[in-house]
Specification:
The protein is built from 14 helices and six strands. It is of the alpha+beta class.
Length: about 375
């Protein structure tokens, strides 16, 4: 089979794989903004592979030696490649939970660079900046390499910046996803090196498909391990993490069980939508507080209105963190102008030789938490009397 036909078939095969991923994403109908951006990314990569395969076939089978056609195909290809990479950059930017102002400015910068790139490629036949066909209809490369420096340069710079941000600012689950999304340009660079080593090789189709597959697998893992309402670790990933830590036999491991007091009253009086809002505020505030104090700390939703925090420190330090969480939740209630106060009951336990698994550690903290809850209710009744 000739090279152009082989490249076309490989691209079409990869389109089928990406098409399946896109269909699964559409069926799932996840309306979180980052997942909408992921669907857009997959769509643009499907378009890219179609353009790449058809362009190779036309250039090498139909319009051989026609410089004008080559320039037109390259222009379409590089504009589409730019849009595919832009879609990845936008998806990555929304996935790492940047502060609103920083995210907006980053998106503007990405769009500005993308617009300049599109303009240069759309006008290159007239400006001769990148590539063109001369008066003798011979293809000339011009400063062809500039766009590759831009395309790979911006990916690697953004990846490095977001890796650093994820390492210092995000939770364990968020860091894992950020690292997976950041593997995209790394996969492309590896396959680009392979192409230069082995010669004519459809690196664009294979590398893009593998990169998207890696991200999709990470997305599925997130669906399994992340609580969809609060965007923190769910119960199954929490048990897995705690047991893994216990098996590592750390010097210190403490667990804080947290319960929202009178949460049922919030649902009954203000409705379940307001109850969901309260859960999101509590989860978001706790996540920020835990990360500020223990970057490697773990936060998960145990179920309903109960949460768990795990840190590698002793019970005394866990108690200090618990009070900081309590204070931050009180402040969040005021800052969000809630019509009700959010108060917490907590129980703290530390790993010891008598606790051999995650379930026992959680049970010990749960018992402590309910003791404190009963004690608080008793004090409130006494105060009323």
């Amino acid at each position: 089979m000739k090279a152009a036909e082989l490249i076309l078939e490989i691209n079409l095969f990869c389109v089928v794989i990406m098409g399946y991923i896109l269909i699964r994403l559409i069926i799932r109908d996840d309306r979180q903004i980052s997942q909408v951006k992921f669907r857009n990314m997959v769509m643009w990569h499907i378009v890219l592979l179609l353009i790449n395969g058809i362009g190779e076939y036309v250039s090498n089978k139909i319009a051989i030696g026609n410089a004008s056609v080559t320039v037109a195909i390259l222009s379409i290809y590089y504009i589409t490649l730019n849009m595919a990479i832009r879609s990845w950059l936008i998806y990555y930017t929304y996935s790492v939970n940047l502060p609103d102002k920083k995210r907006i400015n980053t998106v503007k910068l990405i769009n500005a660079g993308s617009a300049v790139f599109v303009f240069l490629n759309a006008t290159t036949e007239f400006t001769h900046i990148l590539y063109y066909s001369d008066e003798g209809r011979i293809f000339r490369a011009g400063t062809y390499y500039i766009q590759w420096i831009y395309l790979f340069g911006i990916q690697l710079v953004i990846t490095a910046a977001y890796y650093y941000y994820a390492h210092s600012q995000l939770t364990r689950a968020e860091r894992k996803m950020a690292y997976l999304i950041g593997s995209y340009p790394i996969v492309l660079v590896i396959f680009l090196f392979i192409r230069h080593t082995v010669g004519n090789f459809p690196f664009m189709a294979i590398s893009n498909t593998i990169a998207v597959l890696v991200i999709y697998i990470g997305y599925l893992d997130n669906v399994i391990s992340i609580d969809p309402l609060t965007d923190i670790n769910n119960r199954s990933s929490m048990y897995e993490y705690i047991q893994k830590k216990i098996d590592e036999k750390p010097e210190n491991l403490s667990l804080i069980m947290i319960d929202i007091n009178e949460f049922k009253n919030i649902n009954d009086k203000f409705g379940h939508i307001e109850g969901d809002k309260a859960l999101k505020i509590v989860a978001g505030t706790m996540k920020k507080t835990v990360l500020e104090n223990y970057r490697s700390g773990f936060l998960g939703r145990f179920g309903g209105d109960e949460f768990i925090v795990v840190i590698e420190n002793d019970k005394e330090k866990a108690g200090i963190l618990a009070e900081r969480i309590r204070s931050s939740i009180q402040k969040a209630s005021v800052d969000n102008n809630l019509k009700y106060d959010i108060s917490l009951s907590m129980g703290i336990t530390q790993l010891n030789e008598s606790i051999g698994n995650a379930e026992n550690l959680i049970s010990a903290a749960d018992e402590e938490m309910y003791k404190n809850k009963k004690l608080m209710k008793s004090r409130m009744k006494s105060a009323v009397k």
